[in-house]
Fold each of these.
Amino acid sequence: MPQLRQDLVTQRWVAIATERAKRPSSFSRAAAVPVPPAAQCPFCVGHEAMTPPEVMAFRVPGTEPNTPGWEVRVVPNLYPAFGPADLEPVISHVGPYTTMTGVGVHEVLISSPSHGDDFAQLPVSHIEKVVRAYIARYDAHRQNPAIRYILIINNHGKEAGASLEHPHSQLFGIPLVPSAVCEELDGVRRYRAESGRCVYCDIVTAEREAGERVIQENDWFLVYAPFASRTPFEASILPKWHAARFETMTVEQQKAFASTLHDLTARLYHGLNDPPFNFYIHTAPPHGDAEPDYHWHLELLPKLAIAAGFELGTGVMINVATPESAAEYLRNVDLSAPAPAVSAPGVH
Amino acid sequence: MPQLRQDLVTQRWVAIATERAKRPSSFSRAAAVPVPPAAQCPFCVGHEAMTPPEVMAFRVPGTEPNTPGWEVRVVPNLYPAFGPADLEPVISHVGPYTTMTGVGVHEVLISSPSHGDDFAQLPVSHIEKVVRAYIARYDAHRQNPAIRYILIINNHGKEAGASLEHPHSQLFGIPLVPSAVCEELDGVRRYRAESGRCVYCDIVTAEREAGERVIQENDWFLVYAPFASRTPFEASILPKWHAARFETMTVEQQKAFASTLHDLTARLYHGLNDPPFNFYIHTAPPHGDAEPDYHWHLELLPKLAIAAGFELGTGVMINVATPESAAEYLRNVDLSAPAPAVSAPGVH
């Protein structure tokens, strides 16, 4: 079973993913594993047998599970970092150290049958279905008492950690509220204690007033380059209304979110020639008293810099682009422009 | 001047390195900058005019500064992430946000005149001189009241962020104690409050007893794979005696440290075919009351995994190798074996 281990000094948790473990010699520089080509892609139509059986799919009526005919398909991860989901986490001790069983879930949400189309290319009407799948899978796990946090993430491009090229997102259900979310919850509470207001609502107001970090905006969402952006072209999608949970979006809000995600990723695709990126959705923990103080959002970080010795040793990122110049650049990308030339196969 | 910006929610600091700023379009995938070849290397002998004038060097007697004849050479970084060093940091506010001027120092310590030899190849007697240079530069800045922390780091290999191939370390003097060090200081104090003991001293005892995570050991240093290793083959060099400050090492301890650093990097070089890695030295902040509670150490993280959406969104790393298997593998590397074939130029 996967295992979580806590650092004795910093109290940071690390997941030791024994299900994905490799032999030590496989880490030798000569042994790099190439991304499989499309013909062997387990996420392509007709290859449904290459994945574990689907747990959900949006399908053409009348088609059978695990056969073609799907639009969005959700399967368990073949090499789960967390699981199983039907056990309570058990804490134990090894000498002075603390470990926890890595119970939970790890699912893959395949964006569409198309191997080459990601959010920047898919029609907004299709991205709405992806968003609907995010919410459906969130709802499938949120009552599980063993799962203390649910994170939906997307890795785009090999340099951003996508081990398969075919666009997909991942859902992790994990047995603790992770430090990155605890820091935000602490910040939300501290700011509210000091001001009586929601810090994210105040950011919406401040960024709309300043304008210089705004990338795009619609009735429901503000997209901006955070004032303390960690990487060049970091962007946040922030609901303009106060809501702790992304999974409570109305259908109208889901449509606006899908459109926002399309436009932001299209700006990156056209403006920066399809850079690798990661995004994740921070929503309130499923249990506990964080609601209604939290304010959900999506954070997107292009993989355009390397966290090297300084960043690892300090926790302070060095960002070589100002958020203001990044926002201006992305704001001015012409979304009606033709796509850049297709990159060489296997490059991303 | 470089600028530090604080995130309003998490209170994380980010350095916006305007001195190193690039045009937004330079981040486009097509615009990647290649590592310069050796013939244009500013750190090679005879190219001394390509760097800012040296601030220190160990030299053959009778040779002039900024000419050949040096063994270890220290120069200001041409594109400093922090500076200048002669001003107090100034905090100011932009809307709801907080910034600080990025005063400080950023120096490059060129390991040797050899373009191709790093710690795994250099004689231990030469690495002793590098260690001596670390301490000398640390001591040069530690009285500066504007500098609240001094970090020495080493990036090895392009994938680990080394923008120049010629082996070198970097010293950063920055105007705050960074979060990664604060977390350790908090952990040291918490553990001492609970147990009356130093957590790092207890780790030395526990790891020597367990044995399975020990990589190597000599009279002065224990090298081990941390129980909660964040990446495959993470390793810590921990002094077996309690000392808050690396810069207080005796000459005998410096010799043992140089030998330890050589052997650890040689294990990586021979065992994993020269993987990219980062290391940094965590020592007590130069000012304040952390001494004598802190316990200095070196942390080394091979760049063999990508921090992707899950890691960024949670702060929890997923490690696909157990520290026990990594330690066993590195412990068994034959340091008398011949070096692997040289990689193609420009690959790392």
Amino acid sequence: MNEKVVKIGLVGFGTVGSGVVKILLENSDMIAAKTGLRLELDCVVDKDIETERPIKVPKDLLTDDINKLLDDTSIQIGLELVGGTSAAKEIQKKLLQAKKDVVTANKALLAEYGNELYEVARQHNRCIAFEAACAGGIPIITGLRTGLAGNDIQAMYGIVNGTSNYILCNMTTQNEAFSEALAQAQALGYAEADPTLDINGMDSAHKLAILSSIAFGYEIKLGDIYVEGIDNISKDDIRYGGEMGYALKLLAIGKKEQDGKVSLRVHPSFISTEHTLARVNGAFNAISVFGSAVGQVMFYGRGAGMMPTAGAVVADIIDVALGNSAKSFKHLHLRPRNEINELIDKIDNLVSRFYIRIMCKDQPGVIADWSKVLSDHQISISGALQHEGRGPENTVPVVITTHPTQQKNISGAVKDMEKLNSISGRPVCIRIVDIPEDKD
Amino acid sequence: MNEKVVKIGLVGFGTVGSGVVKILLENSDMIAAKTGLRLELDCVVDKDIETERPIKVPKDLLTDDINKLLDDTSIQIGLELVGGTSAAKEIQKKLLQAKKDVVTANKALLAEYGNELYEVARQHNRCIAFEAACAGGIPIITGLRTGLAGNDIQAMYGIVNGTSNYILCNMTTQNEAFSEALAQAQALGYAEADPTLDINGMDSAHKLAILSSIAFGYEIKLGDIYVEGIDNISKDDIRYGGEMGYALKLLAIGKKEQDGKVSLRVHPSFISTEHTLARVNGAFNAISVFGSAVGQVMFYGRGAGMMPTAGAVVADIIDVALGNSAKSFKHLHLRPRNEINELIDKIDNLVSRFYIRIMCKDQPGVIADWSKVLSDHQISISGALQHEGRGPENTVPVVITTHPTQQKNISGAVKDMEKLNSISGRPVCIRIVDIPEDKD
């Protein structure tokens, strides 16, 4: 069989980069047998070429000079696995300008500067492939762009950050406080030394920006997404929610509303413990996609980690080498900002059910107080539960669930509740998300 | 924006065909906006052009003469949605010979004559796309071929026949007999008037043949697959298995064994009720794929039905029109039969745990009898449970679970047990499948 040799240059010999090197060195025969492509790693660029990596590459491939890669016209594909947004952006631009197609796992960069980089790619008749940027090894980009292309995508609900899911699961099952669960995640390597982007929801927002661009065909900006992290979640709320049949997940949600607007948001969400997404444990990811033809499709697997992410990078290399990525990229039409600005829904308009927890002083008239505030804001109560046991200042926790209401009503009610003498501290509000379950 | 017009001819205006027409008529603008392709249905061929369909097409598109489609050189893509294997095979050949790419949902045809048809396609420099042939709306072909291309696929465990899953679920939750559950599935439209291929496992085998060809890169033949259906399953065994923590599923399994051989089989399987696949209910499908890099990835959704399957057909139309299918098809290298014959494992060599149920006469020495047979065949018992309650002829059911043992040992033991005076009837044997759960 004739093999086509595909020459590859890697920038960024870190964790994912090492995984890619491992696959290219070890699975090259398997890939050649299945695809007819002989993937050949010709250059590995990193600032640090001294530190020993878990994976060895021949010394002559290693360099700290990116020009060696850029000047080698035989190299067709450049991998940007540096991460971050400043240096990586310049590297991607240089690769494209040097007429190399780019494969990347850099969700932060694409979420913030994707439209700019796509434009550079188009100018140079190149493509950028980024399966690895969303949900690691799960082939969700391919699934949305190719397998579900016949569907009008109506909604996506995703657990797309393994670190925060791991923390929430441990808070739930081990009754740990947020800080304890975070420390454990860090000790086990599930959270970075600086876990800010994971726990404040921004990493999920990066992925949602990319996924929703493809799903809805819009030029999504990061600023279109409402983002709330898990850093203020208390284990008490997880327990109270659990008693009512809800599991707490950090969800990334993209949804076409009935008025044609698209709402994009990342926030802690109570979902029914019966829903499949509630059973996604530990560092796993899952995305439920609702399509006009297919109904619900769910993708599940490892959303991060050296080898899962590296596998997705190699899949993209193959897709680029086959010429498929270029076509998908060329035919990816995103409706530009001026057309869609008013189609992006604002969080204030969101209609949702809410979980509200207030700490009430043990005195007469308390219920009358808070129920009047809710009533004043047209909020209808679906359930209320006063827990026994004392909080600080002799308070007792009262948990209220609401019928669907607009976010702005809740925001108003919370402000008014804070002023009440009978309530201590700020009410806790968590959205209850009723994910449709596609059932027979 | 410049749109590229893609002309399409459909053969087979049945259920899935109607769904495709519906999407092409209703979602054409959405698809054009997202991909730049204007899909245009130009010809609908069916033997019956009189019967009213739920979806209307302009009269002048309808014809009972396939030559109108074949002779129209402007039509680039032909959809074969006739089903069955004899007429459909000729139709696909004619389409390919007329220089049209083929999109199909016909798993039976591809499983039996795929290699022959692929050869015809290659001769005419055309491609055959078949995302809809496996698991309906779930993008599993794309996932395996593109998204997981960087992985060496080690195993697949799939629930790929919704009818049998629906029947087994109802037998489990409603304690229905097989015949009752089947009748209900037929009444609700989940089973065909002739459900033979669904319940005897052949439909699952068709899908496994296609999926394992792509996953392992082998020219798989239907005869390579060991097939057992659900038609002999009794609700008692489902109940006894349930008491031991197992759910019964009809699994399609493709697995690379440690000796490099591939075992391919479809049979009723007891799996842990804790495994994600045990929670796949009703007519849904799910496939767990284990890749060398990614670990476990699961795809879940509707595996059949008019619109889910039609959505997959339209996805293929888009992929063909973009030129991607042609490249994937051209680069799909399957190792030919003469290389792989001895790599296909025989069921006799299978090592598995087993559930065995025997009906014992209530007399002394029974346990000594059957335990000696198992011991004679080197089968080690992991659990045994004698249920109270009487069967026919004053017998009591005894359920035995084994440690891993070879299929041929079990087959020998079953033969010997049948000869025992203390046992009535034929022992029931169901494999216990320990699907690895990729956990943290």
Amino acid sequence: MNRTEDRPLTVVDEHAHAWSPASARARFRDGLAGPTAGVAAGHTQVNLISVPADWAYDTLLFCQRNPKACPVLDVTDAGDVTTALADGADLRTDLPRYRVWQDGELVDEPTDVRAYWRDDLVSFLIGCSFTFEWALAGAGVPIRHIQQGRNVPMYVTSRRCRPAGRLRGPLVVSMRPVPPEHLSAALRESSLLPAVHGSPVHCGPASALGIEDLGRPDFGDPVDAEPDDIPVFWACGVTPQAAVMASRPPFALTHAPGQMFLTDARDDQYRVA
Amino acid sequence: MNRTEDRPLTVVDEHAHAWSPASARARFRDGLAGPTAGVAAGHTQVNLISVPADWAYDTLLFCQRNPKACPVLDVTDAGDVTTALADGADLRTDLPRYRVWQDGELVDEPTDVRAYWRDDLVSFLIGCSFTFEWALAGAGVPIRHIQQGRNVPMYVTSRRCRPAGRLRGPLVVSMRPVPPEHLSAALRESSLLPAVHGSPVHCGPASALGIEDLGRPDFGDPVDAEPDDIPVFWACGVTPQAAVMASRPPFALTHAPGQMFLTDARDDQYRVA
């Protein structure tokens, strides 16, 4: 679902990993777009979903009831374009690329949503698996899709999220093939980051989640696994977008897949121990 | 703030620690009341706060913005008296004792709130420090107030919670004196339970939290410390009650202090690693 013309920012600029979050946001404000994996390394990237105030309670409750998929790191007041997580940021301009949704349909993918902004929008900033990938890599776990220069594969599962008001939808997961000797570290490291999806929802055969073919992800790219690798599935921050598509609120804004909001928070501050 | 006539249930019945959660709830439904510390050991006890639907978003947002003080384990739909955390339970009858609040004032402390129930009430079940005390005790940390047969001391601090809509109030903390040689275990064990307050908010001099005299807690009982003990402060589930008192919603129900709701969940299921 990535716009293929947007190249990964770490490919566009080999120094992107060393940008400060504020300088990354300034570049995005000036129109730069592209997948943000690896940008401003060590700083927390988050999913964005903005809904009309009338839908905010259902959204917040949906997140509370599905915390592994939708770990909320901040919620703005209605109409507020700032967040406690990023000093001086403007949520309407400071993401690389957005998606605009009307009645559950994707209608635009601009790099700036000032023209779409409404004073009743409440924005949810939701934890992202980039944070636990940093922890896994730090513990020596090979991250296959990064080694292969691809986006992580994501799958719509047969598990239903616990609904909240008008919001309902399937659990979406991301999958990383993990060598057996690294499985313990992968479980431990992600478990210690409950604010960014936490421990996996499933390890082993994909059929348990109703996934028919790991080679055909619903979002992102397929990844090549080694023969002994165990597929490990984590709840994915695309889940609230899937709920928007399924539940059709009259209006919503989100980030474009893989083009996240860069906060000033550091990944390690979400580690509980 | 405990009703002094209510004796601890583990004193009333020496077998109370071995009750099942369902049998404990049945006893409370029949009118038994008293502090629940140690009852149905190993099962998760939670704080209750029920507010009119009009106040539910502010309450949920207050909890999201103050997650260490207000870790939400379940939220009911408006008017629903059941919860996913306790099979067959009725939230109107199955707590030992309740508090009824009107315009921020305490107006009654009944053992049954069917007469006060409203079809627009949304109930929040919030994690409780009893869960991490179990983990601390399991790691060999002496729990002074339990050894001394007292309720944990709680203090209103000078720290303000991050407000949400009409809800605002001070951070309330509980304090446990910890011997220096057990400090590491106390920090580690509570950190691994982020759904029940997680790591401490402060260790050391109480003045940093604006607490003038540890011997005069705002709720609960003073506890005797050994000379080398370090006071350790955790965010406390009384915080949302303090917000209710400060913010004066027209109506609210809560549990009576120390007289918690017994769920079927097990404490160890909230441990992240």
Amino acid sequence: MNFKEELQAKTEQAEETLKQYLPEEKGYQKTVLSAMNYSVLAGGKRLRPILMKETYEMFGGSGRVVEPFMVAIEMIHNYSLVHDDLPCMDNDEYRRGRKTTHVVYGEGMAVLAGDALLNYAFETAALAFELPEVQEDVSLLKAVGKAMGILAVKAGVYGMIGGQTADVEAEEFPPEKVTEDLLLFIHEHKTAALIQNAMMIGAVLAGASPEETAKIEKIAYNIGIAFQIQDDILDVTSTLEVLGKPVGSDEKNHKVTYVTLNGLKKSEEEVKRLSEEAMKELGSFGKRNLFLEKLVEDLITREK
Amino acid sequence: MNFKEELQAKTEQAEETLKQYLPEEKGYQKTVLSAMNYSVLAGGKRLRPILMKETYEMFGGSGRVVEPFMVAIEMIHNYSLVHDDLPCMDNDEYRRGRKTTHVVYGEGMAVLAGDALLNYAFETAALAFELPEVQEDVSLLKAVGKAMGILAVKAGVYGMIGGQTADVEAEEFPPEKVTEDLLLFIHEHKTAALIQNAMMIGAVLAGASPEETAKIEKIAYNIGIAFQIQDDILDVTSTLEVLGKPVGSDEKNHKVTYVTLNGLKKSEEEVKRLSEEAMKELGSFGKRNLFLEKLVEDLITREK
């Protein structure tokens, strides 16, 4: 299998795992269950669950304990999309070519479906405690406790929600108030935090040491920031055909980005630097995962 | 101390515990942190944390492990109020005499603040894993894992959110579609589930057996349903002066309640039956907690 085929196979595996944990659509609360499934099954790259599992395997993990957490991180990602799309937020009517949750189920139900997905993420992750492999192994039990903490912190006000808050506010700022420091805060929390979340949980569940987990946190930071700057670069350089949106839409919207602040050249250099550092670190553990390395490279250097 | 003074003292203790875990309002995400604190510190009876701690003590618990969970359940209660008050839900501009979160911080920020509180509940609860008393005691470690599961399940689609979904939909139903079965589903999930959540976690963290925990679940069910029917009775019988809202507002709103379905007499009998059963069961454990018994009695037989 080449990389593309392997990625395809792993995406399908992640999708299968996800489906095993989705709620059945029945009972008096059926509508919210349908809305949850509608939003989660809209497709998507399942990137975070894959990053989690690959990191887990890199550190020698081979159990089922990672599965509830793979599902949980994907649910957190999806709840954030449902709430971001709300009329009082970005007011988006379409996502991945389908009507957004609030358009199909109404605004109140979309608020509830987002809440339900966030809550279900922790409900699903908590199932890990009941697995026999966890009940019988005190270090794994402690690792699951630690993973719960990471899941929550990196998704919350010191993670994704923190970045989302700063981003919502920055949109109303005059351009001179959007500093590089603020932009990096937003990228770190809004984008990198869920990548850190996924990869750190993978590491911790496989028994990685605190030092190794800290290294993974830094690698995932680099990946997230590089990914986001590359996004801003593509907005300027890519053609409508490749990217599917008008070229330079950020500039037209007077949006301050890393590229408008630092120029294309410095931005490209920064992506290169972050990427090389991440790749070097990722190759420096006792065991390597070449698929993971290729996936990370692919993410950062993508051209669409 | 009489009961009222004791309740007052315990409410202040719960308030103090809560304040220790609230986020500091600083950083680029300061607005969402302020909105969280604004909503949590609006007052309130802190009933769920008190029920949790009293149940914990009834089963002999005396550690600090219950504290993060007391905070977590209060945050879940508060996030549900913030989202319920949104314009696309109940559209309430005042709560406890203060402007609601979305009126003060805007609708988008209120969505984020609700999400943040729900997330922070699990973030706070997960701190329990790191307590030395938990790290050193495998049964307590397992109990904390179990408590995380209860926290999530009873707040989610098979708990509070499930009840909220059914309630939102029932409001649009013609009266004949609102059956007793549906009403009891709503009361069980929207009201009783968080009381079960609080009391079951208290029991589990103190080392209660599965049988004892199941008994507590049933007791909390009775308390929740009796509380809710009593609420409907008061709507009919109470005067404006005592209750602070027009008498019979449910009837004016054509709202189907347990009382409109079954009449006052049968409703009062049912409150009495549920209440007596709960009190009998609550007094049947090896150890008793007389304050808890009085609190439960007070909740159910209140006249406002």
